[in-house]
Amino acid sequence: MKEMVMIIGAGIFQIPAIKEAQKMGYAVLVLDMNPCAPGFEIADCKEYISTKDISRAIRCAHDYGKKYHLQAVFTAGTDVAYTVASVAHAMGLPGISPDAALCATNKYLMRCALRTHDVPCPDFISAKTVEDACAKARILGYPLVIKPVDNMGARGVRQIDTEEELREQFQKSIGESGHYGDPTVILEEYMEGQEISMDTLVDEKGEVHLLTVADRHILSPPYFVEVGHSIPSLLSHETIRQAFDVMKKAIKAVGITCGAAKADIKITHEGAKIGEITARLSGGFHSQCTDPLATGMNTTKAALDMALGKSLNRDDITPRYHRVALERALLPSPGKIISIEGIDEARNIPGIFDIFLTRHVGDYVTSPTSNIGKVGHIIAYGTTRKEAEKAYGRARDIIKIQTVQQEKVMVG
């Protein structure tokens, strides 16, 4: 029987993993409930199953196991580590334990584990009702941040300064929760400071390898919309070393014993603190585009090897060069998109790797309140930051996205 890799998710952030697994000689089965998921076009087999539906995913794995030799379960760029680990465990395949995966997915369990192991993180509480949230918020104090307990992409995340705002936001946030259990929110202290995204890999011996660190560019509160990221980080080597030390403690605390681990870390006046940690490679075009553009590493293959139970090939995570790569979001004025121009011309600019559109003519766009719903993304690179920024700036100036709102045409 042909050997197969199951990849949970068939979105744009899973495409590099699909292609890499096929390049390694495996048939690829993808699971996604979106019939328009782009990964369906290139995968060998596909099933329309929610990435959070563990029981159906396990049944699917058993069914395909009759026709293929299933070797691994994998994902990248989306928070379905619990699904991945549960299917791998049910099939007797390599991976972290389902308990550890849930701990790396459920933000309340995650923070409890971090606190137990003295890993720096924000003070926090959980709540299932608005009255409970308000009562606990009076103890925690304002400002604070409300988050769904098990979602990603800043969905339902908002800074809260008053009880009135908390009451207004609570149902929106808890409505984004409950994918792997009861709907719950967490309230946590607001942390000031630069935010970074750190990708790491835990090898077969348990050694943690630092892959890349990206500076995240976040819009001002009350919402935390990432409008781009840049690799490498501009932080000092010492600051990154301290953040990596915190990352390693967090990995141990939540129980990630092998494979990819990614964290969002705030560099506060008290030092590095874990915002979130999860058992996968990063999304947002970080591990997919800017990491390989900046370093020449093949971290997707390295992570796949870990999922397959293989030993880490150090060549895959050894930089071949040191460049600057960045991603920037396209955010036109709210309204109905009536035209998009300049994409092909912008793609031909030296230093532009690609431009990804997620919205098209006829779609409506609103002011973003999360990382979902951006119109597109520009990926640029160069030998220096100035060079990469210049390429991005040229592309941004060429691209014209016209929207209409209340009969008024806006160009963004």
Molecular shape: globular
Main beta sheet strand tally, sense and closure: 8 strands, antiparallel
Q: What name does the CATH topology of the largest domain carry? A: D-amino Acid Aminotransferase, Chain A, domain 1
By DSSP, the count of extended strands is 20
The total of helices stands at 12
Going by CATH, what is the homologous superfamily of the largest domain? ATP-grasp fold, B domain
The domain tally reads: 4
Given helix and strand content, the structural type is alpha+beta
Text of the CATH class of the largest domain: Alpha Beta
State which percent range the strand residues make up.
25-35%
Secondary structure: helix percent: 25-40%
Tell me the radius of gyration: 21 Å
* Unreliable sequence segments: none
